Amino acid sequence: MRQRSLIAITAALAAGALTLTACGSRDDDGGSDSGNGGSKGTTVVIGVDAPLTGDLSSLGLGIKNSADLAARTANKQEFVKGVTFEVQALDDQGQPSAGQQNAAKFVANKDVLGVVGPLNSSVGESMQKVFDSAKLVEVSPANTGPSLTQGPDWRTKKVRPYTSYFRTATTDAIQGPFAAQYVFNKAKKTKVFVIDDKKTYGAGLAGTFTDEFKKLGGKVVGTEHINPDTKDFSSVATKVKNSGADVVYYGGEYPQAGPLSKQIKDAGAKIPLVGGDGIKDDTFIKLAGPQSTGDLSTSVGAPVEELDSAKKFVEDYKAAGYKEDYAAYGGYSYDSAWAVIEAVKKVVEDNGGKLPSDARSKVTEAMQNVSFDGVTGKVSFDEFGDATNKQLTVYAVKNGAFEAVDSGTYTG
């Protein structure tokens, strides 16, 4: 913890409560303080849960930094009078059990009025009930599993399980079919081998892709599940080669997708691997090697670099000096944090400029009607807590980088 001056402590005690003064330094627990250097008043903590270490850390650190930037911006603008926002970031390593423990830690900190994250849908599942029981709002910039907002039977009957859960990313109910339409109609691939990692995100995405691909007239020539804890996919690669597939669809994330793509090509199947937003990271290309040229990924929204609404975010992120890139979910993470900030603003203004004693439940209620022009476009939520922005983009690996090649929305 950072030390406070005797003057600051004295002033806070005189006011009847100890106020944290944010100065942008890093806490021992991996969190960061996102302040304006000396504002006084009430401190509101925005929790961030993401994989800050391990294979998925390049995405997780982008989530943390982008949420931190939102808090810094709000403080600099004094967006909510009398409120200083700080960020507390906890590492879930992409593991549901760690995410659930982190959720309990956030709930225990009475200053936390909203949480941004997590990255993984399976981790999101483990946190929802903990947050909902505490009436603590959660806004994920990356979860795409449809059941999180629409219930386990979402294909036939949509029922929202938790009113405290929201997300700024669109769902796999749209992303999977969108990818299938591109692969079949535009890439002209008709025979697919489908592979997934058996996790909530990967299996769900592979399932929605498969359903649409078959509906379009495509043929599934093989399916396989992999163990995400291994990197030897030689037996699967041989099955792909022998299947006659002209494309592979993988439901999962880049730590496995990269080696899988490389080993499929090495086995003699010179066909593209297609995946969802979970593989859209430069690390995929490093792991897959030069033969990854032509591999495809869908991702939520439009490329941040091409959005007029994101220009200031990109400039401010660079100016802030973060060591890591904002990565695939930076814009959505900033917007998720800003949604929390907007909800806090509404609650404070409705209560005469102060936070009410039941601030958590009030912030959760206010989130449903939050609407603003964000980094990624218009940010608002439907009756399930899902993002109303349902745009998607297809990226292809070209010259060692992901390049946008198509965009739009799923037309079912």
Euclidean distance between termini CA atoms: 52 Å
Mean pLDDT: 91
Uncertain runs with pLDDT below 50, 5 residues or more?
1-33, 35-39
Tell me the radius of gyration: 22 Å
Task: Specify the helix fraction band.
Answer: 25-40%
Order of helices and strands: HEHEHEHEHEHEHEHEHEHEHHHEEEE
Tell me the layout of helices and strands.
Layout: H1 6-14, E1 42-50, H2 57-77, E2 83-91, H3 96-108, E3 112-116, H4 121-133, E4 137-140, H5 147-150, E5 165-167, H6 172-186, E6 191-196, H7 200-216, E7 219-225, H8 234-243, E8 247-251, H9 254-266, E9 273-275, H10 282-288, E10 296-300, H11 311-320, H12 330-350, H13 359-367, E11 372-374, E12 377-379, E13 392-398, E14 401-408
Parallel strand pairs: 1-2, 1-3, 3-4, 4-5, 6-7, 6-8, 8-9, 9-10
Antiparallel strand pairs: 10-13, 11-12, 13-14
Could you explain the architecture of this structure?
With 412 residues, this protein is of the alpha/beta class. Helix 2 (57-77) packs parallel to helix 12 and helix 3 (96-108) runs parallel beside helix 4 (121-133). Residues 1-33 and 35-39 have low confidence and may be disordered. It is built from 13 helices and 14 strands. Helix 10 (282-288) links the parallel strand 9 and strand 10. The chain is elongated, with a radius of gyration of 22 Å. The protein has a 7-stranded mixed sheet, sandwiched between helices. It has a 5-stranded parallel sheet with strand order 2-1-3-4-5. Helix content is 39%, strand content 19%. The protein has helices at residues 6-14, 57-77, 96-108, 121-133, 147-150, 172-186, 200-216, 234-243, 254-266, 282-288, 311-320, 330-350, 359-367, and strands at 42-50, 83-91, 112-116, 137-140, 165-167, 191-196, 219-225, 247-251, 273-275, 296-300, 372-374, 377-379, 392-398, 401-408.
